[in-house]
Amino acid sequence: MYNVDPQQASNFVAGVDRAFMVILGISVFFLVGLTILMIVFIYKYRRDKHPKAIQNEGSTKLEVIWTVIPLVLVLVMFYFGWMGWRPMKHPPEEAMHVKAIARMWKFQFEYENGKITDSLYVPINEPVILDLVALDVLHSLYIPAFRVKEDMVPGQKKVMWFIPGTAGEFNLFCTEYCGLEHSYMLSGVRVMPKEEFDAWIEDTTSVAPVIDTELSLADQGYQVLRNNGCIACHSVDGSRLVGPSFKGIWGHEQPVTTGSEKRTVTVDEEYVKRSIYDPNADVVEGFNKGLMLSYQGMVSEEQVKLIVEYLKTLNE
Ligand SMILES: [Cu+2]
User: How far is the CA of 107 from the centre of ligand 1 (A)?
Assistant: First the structure.
């Protein structure tokens, strides 16, 4: 149905590389050509050969030539660029959809059956449409080997599509500087044969991220924090990151702003839960509103209890 060269990582490699080579070729031709011409002129028109400079009043013929030739050249570059780019904007009607979610500072991929992963899994030779969702700030999803890159804008519906042509693992990362831990947004794409992918997607027991229930409740709480990227903003050693450190907050009297009113609240389970589900309800003094997003639907009430168990250990 789709023709992807098996030597190539995706259906866009040929088009993008052709445009690149055409532009590179023209640039190299002019770099070399102009440099040679310059050296020749320096030699040919040096002072002892041409002691008196002459004034050229202009030449219509020359002006037409140096307008038309560059015009043709840039149109050639435009043509190859356009031909490589246009198919990226026309995703097929029938394709597997994967929701790609970006937040500071983590990618997550959600499949049609509800499975969620940290890196992207796709079948080979099948078109895939990524529905791009940015939860907080601008991010940009880039898969260099596939020659695809698209900005992810909060509140804007955008898609990216491709047909992977080679099985294997490829880099996937964020190319929009999105804050302190931008470099954490390094992930990958795993391209698998169709049968292998089908078996993988069916298996919902290994839905990542998993919590190891063998661990103590506090350690499970720490895993919840890690899996949700909380510790990108909250340290556990007292140092200040984007948000307040978790060290010693349990039971502490916390000065907060609720609406426009300043008050003090005790950090208990109710407060922690509210901070996670409705972060802007009580804003910790000295920190900015709107940086932390609600984790409603992502962190369950049981997981909040585990987090609380972990917070308690930070007071010891
Ligand atoms: Cu980012």
Answer: 8
Q: How far is the CA of 104 from the centre of ligand 1 (A)?
A: 6
CA of 111 to the centre of ligand 1 (A): 21
Question: Which residue type does 266 have?
Answer: T
CA-based nearest residue to 249, from 192, 314, 158, 294: 314
Same domain, 40 and 118: no
162 CA to middle of ligand 1, Å?
21
Q: Using CB atoms within 10 Å of the CB of residue 153, give its burial: 0 to 12 exposed, 13 to 18 middle, 19+ buried.
A: middle
H helix or E strand, kind and range, residue 308? helix 301-313
In the chain, the number of structural domains is 3
CATH of the domain at 80: 1.10.287
Count of C-beta atoms within a 10 Å radius of residue 148: 21
Strands lying side by side in the sheet with 96-103: 116-117, 106-111, 96-103, 128-134, 158-162
Q: Measure 7 CA to ligand 1 centroid, in angstroms.
A: 30
Quote the ligand 1 centre to 169 CA distance (angstroms). 21
CA of 233 from ligand 1 middle (Å) equals: 14
Same domain, 308 and 230: yes
CA of 36 to the centre of ligand 1 (A): 45
Enclosing domain of residue 36: 13-89
pLDDT tens for 149-205 read: 999 998 888 999 999 998 899 999 999 999 888 888 999 999 999 999 999 888 766
Q: How far is the CA of 141 from the centre of ligand 1 (A)?
A: 8
* CB contact at 8 A, 167 and 191: yes
Is 2 contained in some domain?
no
- Length of the chain measured in residues: 316
The answer to whether the pTM exceeds 0.70 is no
pLDDT digits (tens, 9 = 90+) for 31-73: 999 999 999 999 998 888 888 888 888 899 999 999 999 999 9
Residue 84 burial (C-beta neighbours within 10 Å; 0-12, 13-18, 19+): buried
